[in-house]
Design brief:
The protein is built from 15 helices and 21 strands. With 432 residues, the chain is an alpha/beta fold. It has 3 domains: 99 residues, no CATH class; 124 residues, Rossmann fold (3-Layer(aba) Sandwich); 179 residues, Dihydrodipicolinate Reductase, domain 2, CATH 3.30.360. It is globular. Bound molecules: nicotinamide-adenine-dinucleotide (NAD). Nicotinamide-adenine-dinucleotide (NAD) binds next to helix 5.
Length: 432
């Protein structure tokens, strides 16, 4: 019933399908509380973490939901355990466990291409997680990733992600594959009770996004989407300043992105809309759409888009999009066939202008404050950046919310689909 897990941790497992009786569970709890010094050591030394089953049960019970996000007192923990006992008695749960945060989370990558290398870089020892398995049908991709990221050297290799999920004992997966595979891979992972980090765009259509939302809702699992601007200190600063606590709610936003996207996509899945789900708007443009929706706190009332491409390309390379919000207009300009990589964001607020420029290898932000009548580079006010992977791990532990979640992925899908419809019809598309 109760087994020490590691040196200082306590784990209680209850399986409603075996011969567990309430009495035997109470017995186990008694011995647990008799040795409470050890449990307290576990609590103060680490965070106590309720696994996904525990989280669900406690959430249903209502009383102890905060246990996953706050350091619980012994009393609080006891109440939670007793509530669980009552639930078991009524046969509502299958398994419940407490384990300490000293355990490292076991993660796997599905897809080992370019972006996998980026995430591997943020897999530091302090993160409290390890990548125990890698999956990619292309063995060379796995070998390249392992060569570039020695910390993944011990990870087991698979070419079929379903087989990997069947064989490995995991806490979560990172889905780092071409866009049209995302939905099925998210659903498969959720069905197995795993936490999911999925690269942008979450999925490639609104219907798929709703499917993911329905599967994620009530699952008790984290589903995070890879919009790294949200864990970047500079963008976090911009988001805070473009609000009533900064320069006021935006009245006009210009967000422009140009990339040599045709150069990097030629001959790859990105150039095939059947696998990429679209062109530059679907891919890199998704970051810009997310940023505008993040700053504005939701979808616009109306979207009008003109898209274009060039001969030999099956999907859009250029997009000029106007989005009308209450009291604000956003102009998004995307150029995927450019000789220069550049991102420029200007947010006009009642109190002044926020300007961001990432070009020729340097990133800067300026604030032009109307009241103070000055221009400053507020680098000392910019909070430190985190990483999408660190946010994912901390979200699984209940310490942070996912920086971008399923609803954000859904909103981006709704916005982009409205753009495609508007471009096809030549007319604005109303969203509310
Ligand atoms: N956040 C960002 O800034 C950013 C940047 C680049 C890519 N991405 C996103 O990351 C994802 C992957 O892009 P990439 O640039 O790494 O592409 P990539 O082509 O470099 O790598 C994709 C890998 O997925 C593998 N793969 C294909 N089908 C698979 C399957 N069924 N199971 C396991 N692996 C499979 C491919 O063999 C390939 O190695 C995309 O969603 C992309 O939009 C995000």
């Amino acid at each position: 019933m109760r087994a020490p897990y590691g040196e200082r941790a306590v784990i209680i497992s209850v399986d409603g399908e075996t011969n567990t009786t309430a009495d035997s569970l109470y017995e186990a709890l008694d011995s647990l509380f008799q040795s409470h010094e050890r449990l307290i050591a576990g609590i103060t030394g680490y965070w106590i973490y309720l696994n996904h089953y525990g989280w669900e049960v406690l959430k249903n019970n209502g009383a102890v939901e905060a246990m996953a996000t706050e350091l619980p007192s012994l009393e609080y923990l006891r109440e939670g355990l007793e509530a669980v006992v009552r639930n078991i008695y009524f046969g509502e749960i299958k398994r419940w466990a407490v384990k300490t945060m000293s355990e490292r989370l076991r993660l796997a990558f599905i897809g080992c291409g370019g972006i996998a290398g980026f995430h591997a870089k943020s897999l530091t020892g302090e993160l409290g997680a390890e990548v125990v398995a890698l999956c990619d049908p292309n063995k060379e991709a796995v070998a390249r990733l392992k060569a570039a990221a020695p910390q993944l050297g011990g990870a087991k290799e698979y070419s079929d992600y379903v087989e990997m999920l069947d064989r490995e004992s995991l806490d979560g997966v990172l889905i780092l594959t071409p866009h049209v595979y995302h939905k099925e891979q998210i659903l498969e992972a959720l069905r197995r009770g795993l936490h999911v980090f999925v690269e942008k765009p979450m999925v490639s259509s609104v219907d798929e996004a709703w499917e993911v939302l329905r599967a994620a809702e009530g699952s008790g699992r984290v589903v995070a989407v890879g919009y790294q601007r949200r864990t970047d200190g500079l963008f976090g600063y911009i988001k805070r300043m473009a609000s009533p606590e900064g320069l006021g709610r935006p009245v006009y936003i210009e967000h422009q992105l140009s990339q040599d996207w045709t150069g990097l996509s030629k001959g790859t899945w990105r150039a095939d809309p059947r696998i990429a789900g679209g062109g530059f708007l679907m891919d890199s443009g998704s970051h810009i759409v997310d940023m505008v929706l993040w700053v504005m706190g939701g979808l616009p009332r109306e979207v009008y888009a003109a898209l274009s491409s060039k001969e030999g390309w099956g999907a859009e390379l250029v997009a000029a999009i106007t989005a009308r919000f209450d009291g604000c207009v956003a102009s998004i300009s995307l150029m995927g066939d450019a000789p220069l990589w550049s991102e420029r964001l200007r947010i006009y607020c009642p109190g002044g202008l926020l300007a961001y420029l990432d070009e020729l290898g340097s990133r800067n932000v300026w604030v032009m404050d109307r009241e103070a009548q000055n221009v400053r580079r507020p680098m000392e006010e910019v909070p430190p950046s985190s990483s999408p992977l660190a946010n994912f791990v901390r979200a699984i532990r209940g310490l942070e919310k996912p920086a971008a979640g399923v609803e954000d992925g859904l909103r981006v899908a709704v916005f982009k689909e409205a753009c495609y419809r508007s471009a096809a019809s030549g007319a604005p598309v109303k969203l509310s």
